[in-house]
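Incident log, support desk, overnight shift.

02:14 A customer reports that sequence design results differ from what the structure should imply. Their input is reproduced verbatim below. On-call engineer (initials T.W.) acknowledged and began investigating.
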């Protein structure tokens, strides 16, 4: 089947009266004495195409009957001529010869009438909300960013690796895990007996992964430059605007790379994605700038061009302590940076993205490379205005003895890390990587303030509808 041009493609054509077909959903219908104007959207871009049914045609009985049932949300197919539009803001419109109603959307029942609906209201309509300007734009930017992520890495010699979703290692350390089981929980509760994990599907406790990092490190130690891009799961019990229970993460890992290389890669990556959004999604970004987050475009342009500020954790704490700002959690050296602290540093101190490095080892994962001060690790988080952490990464501890010692200190089950320690036993190399939360990136690029609005079907505590 030859695909017809989309509305986006039609709007890019020179209107010369050529025959065209438009299929899509009606956004609005407006009637004047002379004509009926129908705005049709097919999701290919933010813009609608205007279909004009002139007076002569409107008078035809069949057309009149069809038009009666053409209402907001209905799907239609129109044929006509692509002609220059006298209306301002659009180059072309369709002068209609025939119009067919494909699927009705009765006005008394269709929930998305032509008025502004709140994002909260639309969250209850996750199956229909993508038909609005906002969610259509989010979906297109999400697509563009996913594609750009692959492009960025592929152009730089990285290999895309699929890490497993199910894992039996319960101490990846990044967050609370969801258990995966085929045991009959109800029968078990009735019997009151002990849980026999050897009878479970995998013969032991299994979980959904919280990160692909440990697995992708093995591929890094053979293919040198690798990345994962897939779903991850965390049983986050806090209800925040920046945490989901199911989210997508991008995790590059580079052999023979140190912390400075890692910071450079993360910075180049974010700037590449922001520039791509500005050029490839210009219409949608303009919409977000106007309707969602005033000043968005200018701030993204600045991010794309300005080197990121670097700051050690110790300096960040000093900034917070000497700021005299009121914090819910009082900052002190050794504390985990709270979102309010991260926001303060990016919004008030730096006024842009900032890379914070060298965190206390106690608040970071076991696998991070220990610094020679004995207190900190070669970690780097990238923080951005509005919500704080967007990237978490580090140079990895590649020295067997130090890694084993850390695992013991933390009381982790060493046997579970046998394969991970093998990487340090055989041909170990320095290496570094980071995790970028895909939905956090989308919040950053679109200006949307709730993470539930940048993923089609958000999963969070007590929320798994649709
Ligand atoms: P936070 O402190 O914000 O909870 P984290 O320290 O748990 O983040 P990491 O374990 O470093 O995060 O994960 C890497 C990245 O994954 C984060 O920088 C963030 O962009 C993203 N991320 C982490 N948890 C979530 C979540 N629950 N929902 C969406 N994105 C997340
Ligand atoms: Mn977390």
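02:41 Re-run completed on a clean worker. Output:
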């Amino acid at each position: 089947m030859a695909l017809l041009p989309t509305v986006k493609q039609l709007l890019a054509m020179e209107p010369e009266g050529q025959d065209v077909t438009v299929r899509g959903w009606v956004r609005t219908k407006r009637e004047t004495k002379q004509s009926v104007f129908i705005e049709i959207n097919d999701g290919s871009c933010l813009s609608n195409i205007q279909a004009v049914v002139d007076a002569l045609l409107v008078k035809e009985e069949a057309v009149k009957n069809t038009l009666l049932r053409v209402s907001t949300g209905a799907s239609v197919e129109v044929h006509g001529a692509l002609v220059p539009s006298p209306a301002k803001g659009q180059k072309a419109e369709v002068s209609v010869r025939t119009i067919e109603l494909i699927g009705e959307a009765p006005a008394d029942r269709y929930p998305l009438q032509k008025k502004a609906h709140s994002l909260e209201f639309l969250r209850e309509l996750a199956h229909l909300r993508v038909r609005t300007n906002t969610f259509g734009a989010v979906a297109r930017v999400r697509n563009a960013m996913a594609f750009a992520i692959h492009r960025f890495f592929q152009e730089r010699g990285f290999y895309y690796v699929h890490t497993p979703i199910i894992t039996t290692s319960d101490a990846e350390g990044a967050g609370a895990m969801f258990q995966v089981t085929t045991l009959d929980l109800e029968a078990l509760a009735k019997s009151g007996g002990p849980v026999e994990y050897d009878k479970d599907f995998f013969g032991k406790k299994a979980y959904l992964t919280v990160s692909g990092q440990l697995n992708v490190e093995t591929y890094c130690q053979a293919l040198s430059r690798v990345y994962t891009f897939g779903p991850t799961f965390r049983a986050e019990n806090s209800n925040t605007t920046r945490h989901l229970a199911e989210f997508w993460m991008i995790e590059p890992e580079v052999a023979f790379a140190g912390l400075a290389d890692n910071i450079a890669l993360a910075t180049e990556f974010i700037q590449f994605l922001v520039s791509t959004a500005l050029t490839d999604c210009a219409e949608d970004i303009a919409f977000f700038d106007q309707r969602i987050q005033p000043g968005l475009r200018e701030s993204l342009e600045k991010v794309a061009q300005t080197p990121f500020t670097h700051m050690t954790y110790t300096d960040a704490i000093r900034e917070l302590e000497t700021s005299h700002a009121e914090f819910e959690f009082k900052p002190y050296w050794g504390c985990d940076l709270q979102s309010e602290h991260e926001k303060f540093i990016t919004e008030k101190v730096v006024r842009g993205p900032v890379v914070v490095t060298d965190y206390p080892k106690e608040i970071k994962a076991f696998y991070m490379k220990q610094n020679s001060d004995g207190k900190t690790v070669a970690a780097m988080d990238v923080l951005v205005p509005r919500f704080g952490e967007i990237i978490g990464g580090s140079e990895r501890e590649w020295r067997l003895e130090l890694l084993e010692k850390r695992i013991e200190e933390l009381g982790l089950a060493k046997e579970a890390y046998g394969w991970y320690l093998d990487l340090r036993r055989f041909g170990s190399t320095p290496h570094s990587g980071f995790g970028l939360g895909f939905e956090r990136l989308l919040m950053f690029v679109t200006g949307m303030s709730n993470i539930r609005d940048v993923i089609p079907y958000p999963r969070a505590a007590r929320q798994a509808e649709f």
